[in-house]
Specification:
473 residues, mainly alpha
């Protein structure tokens, strides 16, 4: 679609096709492909040009040539896949699970352990889902926790925690977007400080974290029929997944355990984690530098070095690394298609159309709730919270400041954007955090989406109510 042409309701079609087919068929790869083709069709009917509507040359190849896809290959496929493969080869992850299980008495304590690990790995949504899922899955499986339950807790303690314990790249990223949009955010330093000052009003993140805690402890009075049935199925020994579930991560092949001459140790698991957290956290806290990618590379190299120093042969190390990469192949394909669909949505101006359609004529008292709903919809349709921030913040903050320049009012609106986008990202079947949560907990993607949505929606609704009450007081 030419940049001079205004986006229309047709820009919603790719997202609607993808999400509708994903829910109807529970097969996300065909749904993503259909969404991409729908985007091509929209461009064709608006330009009548086969060249501009060609999905391969205009969407797939440009998306696969981006930095985002390169990160998928290097970080998620090679580094994380290789790290998982090394933990399987050394037996480090299983050894850690066996060590942890001594203090875990049942499903409740296992889920609470998952919740705590979500707080520990708070560097970002994708970081948390991968590391927490990998860490807790052996423990959860042993205690008959359904993969739907596990994926819910892992996903809901990822991005929500990252926006509350924000010792990561989130404040820097948001500050770069909002700096200069209104007088009280004239510089990036002021914008970053404003991010922290608005956290008490980030109601969705707090409620999502509280809901997962109550669910983990068995104190949540309602969690939706689908998640309740999944819990009953697993506890009764009828399977950790529903019959016919499609798992994106390829299970480890039988007989691929650590070599008989190699004795697993906590060092095999702990030292790569220490390396990852050190490289990820220290530069952010002390130097305001994001080194997440380098952290994953360091964790993989550390796992290999530890295994070699403890006597594993180079052949076995390479075998573990390659098999771990193989396990990530299906997930990498899904992520690649999701990025391509994001390129389609950006080309069609999907987010800008939604903002333009809903942002006018909103009373001051309902603006925070309206912003929450707006960001929920955009992030759910596009699969990205950060992309939603880039579109909404530059429009929402001047609007809020014009309606009421009081800093507290602007803080509530600011936090409404933060929380609404996190909800949409967390619940969207085309979001990387949703995909990775499913992949690393062994859960069918659409089963995860269906089972976590009711609780997350309840938290978002209550958060919108609280933000309204906050600006009324």
């Amino acid at each position: 679609m030419p940049e001079t042409q205004t986006a229309t309701w047709l820009s919603l079609l790719p997202a609607l096709v993808t999400i509708g087919l994903a829910f109807a068929t529970r097969r996300v790869i065909p749904a993503l492909a259909a969404g991409i083709l729908a985007g091509s069709a929209v461009i064709f009917v608006t330009t009548w040009s086969f060249a501009e509507a060609n999905p391969i040359s205009n969407f797939v190849l440009p998306a696969l040539g981006t930095k985002s896809f390169a990160r998928i290959l290097i970080i998620y496929l090679w580094c994380l896949g290789g790290l998982i493969g090394m933990w399987e080869k050394t037996g480090g992850a299983l050894h850690f699970a066996n060590w942890v299980v001594q203090s875990i008495r049942g499903p409740r304590s296992a889920l609470f352990f998952t919740w705590v690990m979500g707080l520990v790995f708070h560097q970002g949504g994708t970081v948390s889902t991968v590391l927490v899922g990998s860490t807790v899955k052996p423990v959860a499986d042993r205690h008959r926790i359904s993969h739907e339950e596990l994926a819910y807790v892992v996903d809901s303690t990822a991005s929500p925690v990252a926006t509350l314990l924000a010792f990561n790249a989130w404040p820097l990223y948001v500050a770069g977007i909002v700096a200069g949009t209104i007088p009280i955010l004239a510089t990036e330093q002021l914008a970053e400080a404003f991010f922290w000052s608005a956290l008490p009003y980030n109601f969705y993140a707090m409620l999502a974290l509280l809901a997962t805690l109550l669910f983990s402890l068995g104190w949540l009075p309602w969690c939706g029929r689908a998640l309740s049935l999944a819990r009953e199925r697993a506890r009764s020994g009828q399977g950790l997944d529903r019959p016919g579930a499609e798992i994106m991560r390829i299970p480890a092949a039988p007989g691929r355990d650590q070599p008989s001459t190699y004795t697993p140790s906590l060092l095999d698991f702990a030292l790569p984690i220490v390396a990852l957290l050190s490289v990820a956290v220290i530069p952010i806290v002390f130097f305001d530098q994001n080194r997440i990618d380098e952290a994953f590379v360091g964790a993989l190299l550390t796992s290999m070095l530890v295994a070699r120093l403890r006597g594993m042969s180079l052949t076995d190390i390479l075998d573990g690394f390659l098999h771990g990469c193989q396990q990530m192949t299906v997930g990498a394909v899904v992520l690649a298609l999701a990025i391509t669909l994001g390129t389609v949505s950006k080309e069609l101006g999907t987010a800008s159309f939604v903002v333009g359609a809903l942002a006018d004529g909103i009373p001051a008292v309902v603006l925070p709730a309206a912003l929450t709903l707006l960001c929920m919809g955009i992030a759910f349709a596009t699969g990205t919270s950060w992309g939603t921030y880039a579109v909404v913040f530059p429009l929402a903050l001047p609007l809020a400041y014009a309606l009421n320049p009081d800093p507290t009012y602007v803080q509530v609106c600011f936090a409404a954007v933060l929380g609404g986008a996190v909800f949409g990202d967390q619940c969207s079947p085309i979001s990387d955090t949703t995909i990775l949560s499913s992949m690393f907990t062994g859960c069918d993607l659409m089963d995860h989406v269906r089972t976590q949505f009711p609780i997350a929606l309840a938290a978002a609704s209550l958060g919108a109510i609280l933000s309204t009450l906050a600006v009324m007081s």
